[in-house]
Amino acid sequence: MNLIPRSLSRASRGRSRRERLATAGLATAGLLAVVLTFTIIALFVHGSIPFVRTVPLREFLGGTRWAPLHEPASYGILPLVGATVVTTGIALAVAVPLGLLSAVFLSTYAPSSVRRVFKPALELLAGIPTVVYGFFALRFVTPLLQSLIPVLGFWNGLSAGLVMGIMIVPYMASLSEDVLYAVPRSLWEGAYALGATRFETVIRVVIPAALSGIGAAFILAMTRAVGETMIVALAAGRTPTWPPDPTQPLLTLTTAIVNIATGDHEATAFIWSAVFAIGLLLFLTTLVLNTVSYLVIQRFRQRYA
Amino acid sequence: MRGRRTVGWVFAALAAAALGVSLVVLIVLIAITALQAGPITSMRAVSGAGISLSLRSLDIPGTRDSLAYATVAQVEAGSPAAGLGMSRGDALIEVGGTGVDRPSRAWDTVGAAPGGREVTLPVAWMPRSEVTLGALRATSVQGAPRVVLSSPSESAKAGALRAGDVLLAVGGIPIVGTRQAWEALVVAARTQGTPIELSLERDGELQVLRWDPTVRAELRFVRDPLRAWWTFLTTLNEPRYPERAGLLPAFAGSVYVVLVMGAVAFPLGIAGAVYLEEYAPSNVLTRVIEVLVANLAGMPSAVVGIIGLEVFARALGAGRSILAGGFTLSILILPMMIVAVREALRAVPQTLREAALAVGATRWETVRHHVLPYALPGILTGTILSFSRALGEAAPLLLLGAFLFVTYVPQGLGDSFTVVPLQIFEWATRPQDGFATVAAAAIVVLVALLLVLNAVAIILRNRFQRRWSG
To answer: Which one of B360, B399, B462 has the shortest CB-CB distance to A258?
Structure first.
């Protein structure tokens, strides 16, 4: 641990005390992530206890009616899950092909001068706040789509999902580009040496080699879409429907939380435990997805390190 | 061979098109939003003349129709409009010869009028009911409502109305109520022009009067984009009228919240990253920490909002204050900071550390005097990127219950607040005329700020990357 021979350090008592202090302080900060994670889990589990006690798990996970503020209350989460799946699905259908192809273009075809301009441009665009995309969906994409699909509601999952997809493109492109860039040059050059064209190299060699990394990027894009709040809150409406219809208003898991949290309820009201239950579900989902993609990317990097 | 080539070219074109389409869509997004903010100049020109407008509507009795009109909701004291004698409760009928059926019509007309920065347009308005008509009394005869002019105003007398007249209809619109009588005058004056035809019963006889109760004058409007944007940025928010919306409270709130967040997340982020990168032994615990940091960085912002609400606002009693908001955002930003700072530390050459250790520096001295200064540009880049992310974040603060209707600049850490993205959200959800315009204007301000911050960060990074590698 200690790399300095004791005889070399002068005035060592003061310095070593400072050293111990610094180590302790830094370690505390380092452990903060662990403390934070367990605090969050404890908080959510504790908060959802009243909910779990009152609402049977079967009704929560299998019910098709979400009406926590009606009499009689009903806590079926399927409409929320369905809405989240619909908007996430639409978003990924836009973001994955566009993002992946952009990444392939940047890493394979683009001259380095083009790459130097476009990579930062993508990063800049990834910094646009989500509320801006929500405004765009509500004020521009929905009216545009309504002229094509007359039955489309003022609030709908389609427009929210499409714009969410556009939002994720820079993120997906940036992640996949990193992954493709990490594939060793020797693999590219080996394929070229065997007479493969660039297209064949990318499709048959590079993408298969980078598949696990691309999968991880896909999962990260998915967690972004699942957790997205402002776009759906603005453009997708606040109505729980079952079965979910992308042309009609939808209530996703995140907007359900917003709905209750902004509803001015007493801090002790039972409804808050529903917020914790949904929050716990969201947190666990993203925890699993993030962990899987993190481990996959780590392994991918190690394989080609 | 040729087939292989073609497939390759098609694929290359497709890939280039994908990148092109994505970038074009994103740029169109920003351009369209910026264009939507355009009318702010004419909105400010109208409010600068002293008038705030509200949309009202009148249901036409006996039909399902309703007609919209615009009332003067506020007249600023000392303004040109007040000088002309306009007052609160009047209805605007015409601007520049165009009938005003809703607030946006007045703004658009002023905006589209030919002329330079200053333009003088004729305006016509109907003074409020007490001035135009006087005192009215509602009675009913066999269930049918009757509106009687009990005490005519000067203006009504000038129009040959007398006390005791029963108002029946104006321009074909039946009069059924005291308030509705004036509204019918307003709508008739706009749709049918003046003089209007007023049917009334006087001494048991039906009479039709032709009467022009409107007041006409010339009003000067100043259309100055710079002034419009400047007042938008520097005035307090008037939540009911989009033409008096101001971004100052939200802007100040954003600055305060990010400062609090920075005071928490900056030192903790650097300390955590230094521990993981320079101190942590390579064992299971370290790997677990790394996974958890990655997880926290990907946590949905709604979940962060619940934590902020429960821990800071409720358990620690900070309420819905700037302090609670700053702490909440620091949970969101901390993992991002750690990841960014670690990257900066990793770029510091190993030889630097070894050299410091070799001359007898302790580990902390090495970090403090050599590694951190060397990594500073990278750390700053990561910090700017994380902070600009926090500036655009609305969801956690929305859950925290940051007030959407904050009209003042917060004075201390315990005050309630709103931030720019939340203010945009609030404006974007309002259906009334003009709020979309101010939402777009606020977006232009926010996006410009973030693009500048991010560009600075990216340029900084590229510059130092080149220096290190070269």
So the answer is: B399
Give residue for tokens 């995309």.
A133
In a domain, B34, yes or no: no
State the residue range of the domain holding B198: 130-212
Query: Within a domain: residue B24?
Result: no
Tell me if B458 and A105 make a contact (CB, 8 A cut-off).
no
Same-domain pairing of B173 and B247: no
- Characterize B95-114 residue by residue with b for buried, 16 or more Cβ atoms within 10 angstroms of its Cβ, and e for exposed: bbebbbbbbbbbbbbbbebe
B272, part of any domain: yes
User: Are A3 and B357 a contacting pair at CB < 8 A?
Assistant: yes
- Please report whether residue B12 resides in a domain: no
pTM: 0.89
State pLDDT tens for residues A88-143: 999 999 999 999 999 999 988 888 888 888 888 888 888 899 999 999 999 999 99
- If asked whether residues B374 and B399 sit together in one domain, one would say yes
CATH number at residue B428: 1.10.3720.10
Neighbours of A116 (CB within 10 A): 12
* A15, A170, A282 member nearest B302 (Cβ): A282
What are B320-358's pLDDT values in tens digits? Answer: 889 999 999 999 999 999 999 998 999 899 999 999 999
Instruction: Tell me: do B182 and B286 sit in the same domain.
Output: no
Q: Quick check: B395 and A254 CB within 8 A? A: yes
Please give the residue of chain A at the shortest CA–CA distance from B338: A30
pLDDT digits (tens, 9 = 90+) for A6-39: 545 455 677 888 888 888 889 888 888 888 888 8
How many whole angstroms from its chain centre is CA B239? 10
Alpha-carbon distance of A264 to A268, in angstroms, equals 12
Residues of chain B neighbouring A109 (CB-CB closer than 8 A):
12, 15-16
Do residues A66 and A79 make contact, with C-beta atoms less than 8 angstroms apart?
yes
Tens-place pLDDT, residues B360-411: 898 899 999 999 999 988 899 889 989 999 999 999 999 887 666 777 888 8
B195 with B118, same domain?
A: no
Count the Cβ atoms, other than its own, within 10 Å of residue A49. Answer: 12
Number of domains in chain B: 3
B235 lies within 8 A of chain A by CB? no
Chain B residues close to A33, C-beta within 8 Å:
272, 289, 292-293, 296, 334-335, 338
